[in-house]
Write a structure and sequence with these properties.
The structure holds 2 protein chains of 2 kinds. Chain A is of the alpha/beta class. Helices cover 39% and strands 18% of the residues of chain A. A 6-stranded mixed β-sheet of chain A has the order 4-3-5-6-11-10, sandwiched between helices. A 5-stranded parallel β-sheet of chain A has the order 2-1-7-8-9. Helices cover 38% and strands 36% of the residues of chain B. The longest helix of chain B has 21 residues. Bound molecules: iron/sulfur cluster.
């Protein structure tokens, strides 16, 4: 698309930065909710270009990272069973369970397959009627509708050997949990644009009002992030706290009604544990009673598996914005993408992985001072 | 996997009772399910995630956003605080010299 390149235009970035600089009179801490936004920010060095005092805190929006250890252990157990074909997105392969990962299960003879789309898993089920095919259904409101469609289609087409191991999570309760935490420093949110592409913006005004916090729906290109920051800071400086949509090209106020209807049919809201954070009330989805027989947890009777998460990895604090990845002692030493201790280092959208890939390992733990223009490294390449 | 990316619809067909499209992501071509955006047409763009088109990309609002960014500079030159602008320019010049 022609205009996509323009959303990385350094000259326009300079104007947005100028405007942010002209607006800011005191320090502000903003959280970008989505891991995709974190990657844009770190990759293009946006956090280092902002005026001093404007701090970006990385949010919990990486689906791989927040999937609890317990669910990984359930996945490993199911994937090890004879006769099972276990299908997953590729970035779940190296996420450590208690004593191994899916990659290892495959090495030990498990039939673990990587798919691009949940529909691929459904096709595998059609082609292998004598095997049990399980799809690992994780993710936020963007991933939940595709997975819901698969369960619906399996039912419609009479495919009985397909089930879903569900661990879906929802953004608004996470925002609620972050804002009610006693350590919370977040004063404004860049909401996850693609989550809102599906869900619309209805869920946010009440949150913004109750916590008196501006929420700006933001896209993923460098200029989108800068515009999200600009609007959030402008609201903060004026003492406002409303919901704004700065990603209109992909977000309609009502979201995607067809996807929302499917979600409401296939899933129901439930409490969910987030890796490193703990249970957040009403923060997830599970299959609704009508589809319960397609729930892999029931089919394989693994709901009894419970796991205590180890203390060495501080990803829980990273996910809540309480700690920057390079402030973790293990960062870059005992914990690297090759030998990850936590999911935030494994996932391509994890904050620890972003810091490892794009941020020079030798940096001091504190964020570096804001740089001035005109050195906008909008096409900066990874250093590591 | 959480990244949803924009792509252009090249072809649409019905497969097993499901509306599917071939979508071009700047050279990489993939099959995409259109059940959530049934009225998407060939030539249009959409945000695609794990094989599903989730929202139409609206070129008109993209342009408007870019226009706004462009105007920002003009407005600032017009109404901005000249002292601040001068200070900013000075800081930038210093940075270049360093
Ligand atoms: S650097 Fe590694 S150990 Fe530290 S928080 Fe990140 S994933 Fe966990």
């Amino acid at each position: 698309m022609k205009y996509l390149e323009e959303f990385r235009d350094p000259e326009l970035a300079r104007r947005l930065l100028d405007d942010i600089r002209a607006t800011v009179t005191r320090p502000w801490a903003l959280m970008e909710v989505c891991g995709g936004q974190t990657h844009t920010i770190i990759r293009h060095g946006i956090d280092q270009l902002l005026p001093e005092g404007v701090e970006l805190i990385h949010g919990p929006g990486c689906p791989v990272c927040v999937t609890p250890l317990e669910v990984i252990d359930k996945a490993l157990e199911i994937a090890s069973r004879p006769g099972v074909i276990f299908c997953s997105f590729g970035d779940m392969l190296r996420v450590p369970g208690t004593d191994r990962d899916l990659f290892r299960v495959r090495g030990e003879g498990g039939d673990v397959r990587v798919v691009y789309s949940p529909l691929d898993a459904l096709r595998i089920a059609q082609q292998n009627p004598d095997r049990e095919v399980v799809f690992f259904g994780i993710g936020f409101e963007t991933t939940a509708p595709p997975n819901a469609m698969t369960v619906y289609q399996a039912r419609k087409l009479g495919i009985r050997n397909f089930s879903l191991l569900v661990s879906h999570v929802r953004v608004p309760p996470a925002i609620e949990a972050i804002m009610t935490s006693p350590d919370c420093r977040v004063q404004g949110f860049l909401a996850a644009g693609h989550v809102c592409s599906v869900m619309g913006v209805d869920e946010y005004p009440e949150l913004a009002e109750r916590h008196r916090v501006p929420i700006v729906v933001t896209g993923f290109e460098p200029l989108d992030i800068l515009e999200g920051i600009r609007r959030t800071v402008r609201q903060l400086e004026r003492g406002e706290h409303t919901v704004e949509n700065a990603y209109q090209r992909a977000v309609r106020p009502e979201g995607n009604p067809a996807a929302k209807a499917m979600l409401a049919d296939v899933f129901e809201v439930t409490d969910r544990a987030w890796r490193g954070i703990g249970v957040i009330p009403q923060s997830g989805w599970r299959l609704s009673p009508r589809y319960r027989d397609q729930d892999a947890e029931h089919r394989f009777q693994v709901s009894g598996i419970t796991t205590v998460e180890p203390a060495e990895c501080r990803s829980g604090e990273v996910l809540q914005g309480l700690l920057k990845p390079n402030q973790c002692e293990a960062f870059g030493t005992t914990c690297t993408p090759r030998n990850p201790l936590g999911a935030t280092m494994v996932s391509s959208e994890g904050a620890c992985a972003a810091y490892y890939l794009y941020r020079r390992l030798g940096l001091p733990a504190a964020p570096p001072p804001a740089r001035s223009l005109p050195v906008v490294p909008l096409e900066a390449s990874p250093v590591a | 996997m959480c990244l949803a990316v924009p792509g252009r619809v090249v072809e649409i067909e019905e497969r097993d009772g499901t509306r599917m499209a071939v979508v071009d992501f700047g050279g990489v071509v993939k099959d995409v399910c259109l059940e959530y955006l049934p009225d998407l047409a060939v030539g249009e763009y959409a945000i695609v995630h794990v094989g599903f088109a989730l929202q139409r990309l609206d070129e008109e609002s993209a342009r408007k956003t870019l226009e706004l960014f462009n105007e920002l500079g003009l407005l600032q030159e017009e109404f901005g605080d000249p002292w601040e602008a001068a200070a900013g320019a000075g800081a930038a010049a210093k940075e270049v010299q360093q």
